[in-house]
What we know:
Blueprint: H1 19-43, H2 55-89
Amino acid sequence: MSLVNVEKIDxxxxxxxxxxxxxxxKVLGLVATGTALVMGSSAHAEGxxxxxxxxxxxxxxxxxxxxxxxxxxxxxxGITVAVAVFVISRGGIKKGASS
Length: 99
């Protein structure tokens, strides 16, 4: 049985490797070497290793933002209560030019 509308491929074309595939092995070797050097140097370091503290400034910034937003919310709540008290004490807002 012969196939209709099918073209026979004699030889597969060579697929050219992408940049990543060409240099993947070299990069992995460099990463492994770099990791080994860093681990080796930190193991023989004298004294304690100090890690910079990144969390404290962020925590204080979020705390100040939350405090400012809380104060803003209280101001808006106070204004809303003041307007409500004014409207209730005057008997509502009257629709007229003169009151």
